[in-house]
Fold these 2 entries.
Entry 1:
Amino acid sequence: MEAPLLHLALVGTPNSGKTSLFNALTGSRQKVANYPGVTVERKEGSFVTPLGRQVSLVDLPGTYSLRGRSPDEEITRDIVLGRTPGEALPDLVLCVADSTNLRLTIRLLLELKSTGRPLMLVLNMFDIATRRGVTVDVPRLSQALGVPVVTSIAVRKGGTAELLRRTDELIAAQVPHPVQPNLWQPLTVAQLRATQREADRIIAATISLPTRPDTWTARIDAVVLHPVAGLAILALILFVMFQAVFAWAQPLMELLASAFGALGQLVHDTMPAGLVQSFLQNGVISGVGSVIVFLPQIIIIFLFILLLEDFGYMARAAFLMDPIMGGAGLHGRAFIPLLSSFACAIPGIMATRVIDNRRDRLTTILIAPLMTCSARIPVYTLIISAFIPARQVWGFVSLQGLVMFGLYATGIASALGVSFLVKFFMWRDYAPAPFMLELPDYKMPRPRSIAIGVYTRAMMFLQRAGTTIFSMMVLIWFLASFPRPPAGATDPAINYSLAAMIGKALEPLLAPVGFNWQIAVALIPGMAAREVAVAALGTVYAIEGGKEAAEQIGQLLATKWSLATALSLLAWYIFAPQCASTLAVIRRETGSWTWMWVTFGYMFALAYAASFATYNIAMALGAG
Amino acid sequence: MTEPNGAHPQLPSAMPLDAPLDASLGIPIGIPLGLAKRGYSGVIQHLAAGNAGSALSADELESRLIELGFVEGARVEVLHEGIVGRDPIAVRVENVTIAVRRREAMAIIVA
């Protein structure tokens, strides 16, 4: 008889190295989804124990206690208590601790004990602790806690061997499960205090701590958290990040672009002229290709975010930004969701769940889409490289990179402005919720963990390119190709198409901001996913201009648009009224249609106003 | 079960924040951590969450402080201060560093 699937759950405080342990145990065998009804990320992976048991492992959201004061923490509590329908009650709960910092985890472990679930304490990052002079009497600790304790070094090959071996032993010893009653109840303040004291007592008896704290963290923090130097470093990091996105990715992007160009040419040469050839070359290859080209940039953005997160810098950034965010009426914790929004507003909005106050959370959700998401990079890149000369200013800064930085800065400034107005007009009487955040010791980022993280995101992007974006491209190609031009027509074929009709109908509305009907056509699918606008422009102009135009959209645009129009489109995209998936997430996260429409409405108004101003100022300055 | 004010059960629960208690009364002088400067180090005497003026209820604030390791007897040191109004502060609590705003740190009485 085959042994049933084992269910293990990882529980731990934030920064306990839970995610790197999860990555070490499951490798790339991971599934990321949502818990039903809520948008808390559900990470599940699988592995096989040395004795051959199939294990399903869930990585539960980090928490300091089982009180469940945010939706994330409620998930952790409910799964450990077996209250979530459709989720297995864990056969074994692995409580993960950062070995250099056991105080808070041991308190959590004492609380977990009352749930009656079989437990094991995993002393993770044990190598770092040893190096720092922390010595743990593991057998005594295990005896004092009344639960098995293992050490692990998630980042080292074989560093989880003991954990796996003990898991097998525990499972073997527990068949059938001893029935332990669940005695857990929300702790009162006095009980919390008592458990922390108990934890401190156990630590004093079993663990000897080094007399001096981690000197590296202290030294780095002396600079990084310095009121002046710290902010300068933060600005520098963001600046380097955007220069990197623009400059480092370029060779790879050119490589990808020429590969897709060659593929399109191949199709063009080998297939008979006609609808099928046009569909494959203009619709599929040039459309999907023009989006996939941006994969290097998305990888670089996520690489930076994950590296900073792993290193421990993100919490410092939140600390530095708290007064500034606070001035704009935001919570310091909003910094991390907002920073994630640079990659994509969807994970950003989902990450607002770390903010437990509803009003703070709503404000953050409202402004998250103003952060320049990676989907806007294709649009920016295209227009900047077509219209902004590639030269250096002040001898060392790329002008194109500078414009890119300016676009990001405008997005951030307007986000802070909107937040300030929201707070001022809507929630004047409301006192800000507290900012309390652990600043973890710095750690060397773990290449394998980072690689898995970047890989997961890159796959998500490609999946989107393969599904949403592909279907939009087919639709645009269809709209741009039908009806066919009448026999003997002299104008380009697209002028007779459905796309042209829709674009021309919208043109009067968009003429004051300098957009022509081709842009109007591209903006419509751009709402399904912003980056589609680039591909759509490619399709519209490629079809219009004949086959040879398909490759160099940028060069083509430079001849078709005035500088004022280009700048106006850049301004439009700072506010870019929403991609449909962002709106859907806002609807789901806020639980109301109202907030979704409020977001859509205010962003549309801002986009129109900004474009109108940009276009008219540029025209007045002679950029027409 | 230990008393909430364990070490100093005689402390009044509504201690005025601006007036350190008189040592001659036999009560230890304590100041709120929220008033401490960078470089200050001391030991937590008790928590007075009701006095902090936080947006949270006293119980909730106290629970969160305890969960982050702020309990009586813990050694604390103010490591860093923010830019505007020297807020927030980064506090070393035993061997963990926690960032809090001064408003919430008013609930932590140290000496």
Entry 2:
Amino acid sequence: MSVATLFTTSFRPEMAGLVLTVNGETRSIDAAPGAVLLDILRDDLELTGAKEACGRGECGACTVLVGGRSVLSCVTLAAVVNEPVETVEGLVSESLPLREAMADLGGFQCGYCTAGMVVRATELLRAGLPKDDDALAHAMAGNLCRCTGYRAILAAVRRVGQP
Amino acid sequence: MTFARIRHPEWEARTTGQMDYARDIKLKDLLVGKVLRCPYPAARIVQLDVEAARGAPGVVAVLVGTDLPDRNYLDYGQADRPSMARERVVWAGQEVAVLAAETEEQALAALALIRVTWERMPHVTSVAQALAVGAPAVHPDRAVDNVATQASRSFGDPASRGAATRQIGAAYGCGPQHHACMEPHSALAQWDAANGTLNLWTPTQSPRNIAAEIAQMLGLAPAQVRLRRSGVGGDFGSRVKAGDIEVLAAHLSMKTDRPVSIRLSRAEDFAYAKRQHETWVDVTSHYTDEGRILFREGRVTVDNGAFIQGGSNQMNYCSILLGSHYRLAGAQIEGRSVYTNLRPGGAFRGAGGPQAIFAIESQMDEIAAQLGVDPIVLRKRNLLPSGSETITGWKIATTAAAECLDEVGRRLDWDSARATGANPDVVRGVGVALAMHVSGAIVTPATGKAGAVIEIGQNGGVILASGCADPGTGEYAVIVQLCAKELGINPGDIELRAMDTATTPFDPGAGSSRGTMVTGGAILAASREIAEELRRQAAEMAGCAAQDVVLSGGSARAGAKEFTLGEVAAAHPFASGGTLRIERETAVSIPPVPMTHTDSGHGHLSPAYAFAAHGVEVEVDRATGAVRVLRVVAVHDAGTVINPVGAEGQVVGGVAMGLGMALGEQLLWQDGRPHVTGFADYAMPRADGVPPVEVVFVGAADPAGPMGAKSISEVALMPVAAAVANAVANATGVRLRDLPMTPDKVLAGLADRPRTHPAPIWRRPEHWWSAAVRQAYPSGLFAALDRYGPSRSTSKVPSIASVERPEQTETALALLARPGAAPLGGGTDLLPARSQGLAAPEHLVQLAGCNDLRGIEDHDGVLTFGAAVTLADAQAYLSRATLPGDRALAATLDAIATPQIRNMATLAGNLCQQNRCWFLRSGMNCFKRGGVGRPCYAVTGDHRYFHSVVDAGRCQSVTPSDLATMLTALDAEFVIRGPKGQHVLSAAAFHTGPGENALRPGEIVTALRIPAAARSDHAAFGKLSLSSDGFAIVSAAVRLRLDADGQVQTARIVLGGVAPTPWRAASSEERLLARVPLETDIAAAADAWTTRAHPLRDNEWKLAAGAGLLKRVLSQALDNSRTVNAAET
């Protein structure tokens, strides 16, 4: 058996009506009961800012806010989401100072992990950043980045999060 | 010359999620492509039957190897890889068939219908096996000895070694890293039959390499393949040449006349995409008593994989750099790239450079130690001066290597840092390493030239077109900065056209750090030329000399007169329709040095050479072997820095990748089958794993580079691993030569390492059975079970048919009584486990909606958590806890996974997660998955970190829950409800095997209770893992109750990661009971449990690490409570 042959499913179950509040709008979608939130956002709602980079909750690229908390949309069943969803697209204005700081300090490179970083940092900024830099790094450790080495991302978050 | 800090031209798209990567592009009528791969490292296809798949619902096309033209990838010139296997298959993952279907589900279902009869063949899955006498040949027709390519290179004066008085030699190994680009590899192909053009969207930093390669493979003219612009989610060398899915998607699109997308999952990317080649560098330095290195002998051995893709390149550059670094008089370097039945590699940041530097720079410190000379002083005695030529023919016009070293020394406070006195347990040290690297290896005419198009319209708009791509390197920022500077305009005012091979001029793509040098050089030349034309025209309009015209602020100024650039451009005689356009191709001024197919390797390889010295300070835990890097100083001689933001980013990113190479990242195979298939198994640094990095640029402008620039991106990776190894040696005296330096290797290297003594097997009858099975494994049992063992596993996982969200536990229990129903906590394990074929519930019952499962109550001193409380909510509740038991629990929660996982995962879900064995999770049909007829792959495979050392049965895995370990120490109780009512189970009785628990069908945990007495006892938790989110290699949870005299009355010592379930170390507890614990008692208790152990071949080190960790956690438990008591009184 190999990795590729593991991903098999037998039949397509009945579609069910799903109501989600995404970035302030209420959306009704027909979806399979097992559909994950990330696929609904990307395929049905065409919000492709959240990325699938691991598909199993390990990297944070698909991070969105549900009820204000950052969650991994690739391992979240859409059917259990009953609080408002915010994606990077819905945070464009709120995150502007952060995104500018990232651009000024080098807080992104290829951009593939960036949406997840912005969303996760937004949750932290709303709550107030931990004072300690190590604690901030630990709080951002759920988002993998292969390009930047993180320091500029943390500096950008710190720059906008300072009172 | 200094450049401003600007924002990247695509900063808005890249930070708002608006950048379209290949996976984000939706085309009408898009088909999904999937690849069937061989599961064996070597086999013959006896029969391949795709008829059932052809007829399956939704399937539009199926292709096998014989359907495709018999062509091989060109790669770096030694073309031996076909697009799909025909008869022989030579690596586990080689492409056997590919199909396109309407939906992903249909594609996967059809893939499962393809029937292949395999004849398994002998194989070699390591270089050692491949070079053994009588080894089976990977390609008997062309390399009976498995040597894919080789070179023997002599540089300088062979007699110079005679003048040396000393020598030192050793072998240095760099295990294979994975590029792990955040965007997994993907390809979207659209055949445009009307125009005879193939449109292709795929991430790459070398668009023209890909387009040319695909055209070649399809038998099309190069212009018939158009690589389109898209986001590029990382490259690092992995996509400078075509992978396998681009060609396959293209064939499917041509066959079906519809667009086809093939997207690798992360697991597939880890298992089948390109990788770095494992490389061994055997080096001997011949030197004088004064510390002059005169002669270097080297032997480079590269694991080529099954086809030559970058393997030869890696060997070549590594061997040439071995003769180039420092001022040698001579060198003799042999190199081999060896075929194995492992997946092919590919270019990887530095292409053999990091491996050469790791060897040379480690050995420099060993020489320094032998001579009693300071490592920085020794390096400075051997530097190449500016204006010198290496024995390999490299002309070093500028070097600031000495300044790099001095700056590292100054900023690290080198002399006093090295002298830091040792605390017996946690020691600190500093290390330095110096690297040099090309700024673009010019190996063919095409690698040295690039084109540029600049247009200025009459409205003053400037368009810059370049064929380069920017995978995060900041190349787009570099080229707009160069152009803007010459035209006197704002970089933000330039419209950039890039990447698209149909609308941009030729570009060689990034690779060997040539982006700024070659592409930047071409942009600068074209910008200067058009600026000159503008000045000439403005001069004519103003009636002055061209040199009196200044381009600035979007205008041409000549004395008092001022014209807009648009006016000047429109008036230029070459302007057409009001637009002045210039298209130029520019080449660097040095002739190519073909590196491959030649033994010489001699010649000036690059227009300029970059240097970097990195210094690091580390902390080594002598008890557990863990290495922590505290800070990094990275000093680069990069000439002129054109894009400061990008330059710093390249350095820090290179350091992070280097730390991964040094300390944790490694791809692993079990008999040729990949079992590192996710980030959970691959210790890539996270945000809390990269220390502060001080980036410093020194040195002068280089005459060859645009504005004097030299390279940064690859040289930034090169010194890191050696600097860390040198710092570890400085701290501990241990010289580690085999990367990554995981804790097992550090502990093994310590001269006074902790010794552990498992009792002889005859004294442990409970282990006789597993010992017998283990003994039988290598003598045929393993092979027999692996090959012939029947399996009860099925790879079919039914879709989720329903998801219920009851509000009452009663309702939930009723729903769970249905067949195929299972509880859903946060889903963070259940959903991945489904995709790994390890869970198959059709009906999910989410428990988070049951309010009675979400409470937290502190009543009569008993702390009760509802089972569906998330880890984060429990953590938040405990954040102001004062009781030591509560605080230890909070520390445990903080050490679990990542913040997002903690936001989602529930307490009961954490307890009930399945085991995380990488053989099981990568899909192997093992004992745990397939039943008693199957082997446990951990017994013969890599079990250094995540498998049992005590009490294992047939499955060597462990229960991964840190929470379970702590709760067992706290004597917690779990309230369980089910069809037969409610009962209470102690935490100690909950787990029954690795990731297995005592819940019966239909039962759920509803609450977790921590007794009052346990909460006020002395308690602590500690964990050793490979990365901050990682599962425990070993964890220790401790709770001690002292009486008024300070004697231990009650002790709970529970270890995680060592046994199938959280394991109570009774013998350790006994050593503390009825004593006032002194340091000697703590040490004895920490060791006591190890005599019970029954480790596997390579994980006995976990006993020492576990004992070291336990000692610390015991001390911490006692100290913490002392501190708390002190604060209270």
